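The protein record now logged underneath.
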Amino acid sequence: MLEIKNVKKIHYNKSGAVRALNEVNLSLGAGEIVGLFGENGAGKSTLFKCILGFYSCDGEILLDGEKISRSNIARFSFATCEHSFFPNLSPEMHREFYQMHFQTFREKRFEGLMKFFELPLNKPLKTFSTGQKNQFEVIMALCQGADYILMDEPFAGNDVFNREDFYKLLLGILEPEETIFLSTHLIEEVEHFIGRAVLLRKGEIVGDACVLALEEDGRTLMDYVKETYGYCANRVSTALEEITGKL
């Protein structure tokens, strides 16, 4: 189990201190598929980077009761739209590198996903399109052999058909012990893929819901998000009236 206890993070910029995370408490069990939602700047990427140790933070982050360290960090993988691969290397070279460093590397999954996305094995990644780079980033996160797979806006630049098919494929290939923690703005697309929705706002968790329970109540995930954030339905008409003087 991944446990996030009273995590706080402050960023410093020219304007001073900015609280990115404030008393975040969250637990993720083995085999869960959890969506992390929030406006731009809500703290989603910061939370991921605190989990992985890229940022220092106050509070505790534990994996099966132990702090994250070199001894257990390989149980995490990360797919980020900022990209973490070596741009001058090919996918085949990445495969060889991962096989050397991760005994749990999933060879068959790698081959299947490369074929699914129709990605070339022997071209440098710097020659790939943005969508292809993001696809490869996801492939490597899924093939490392990690128990907890963190994905930060992984589907940017991908067409809707690729995304829809990929959700279906992912549900079919995940092992029972693999946990997905996914940050995305594509709320309606992932509604039937995730089992749980966690909502962040201004660095604080403001919602944590079971998607199946929402469906049983006759509510969509988007309904829940709008209700929790207090979405103003007449926001557009009000802005148009102020800008143009017309309703």
Summary: The radius of gyration is 19 Å.
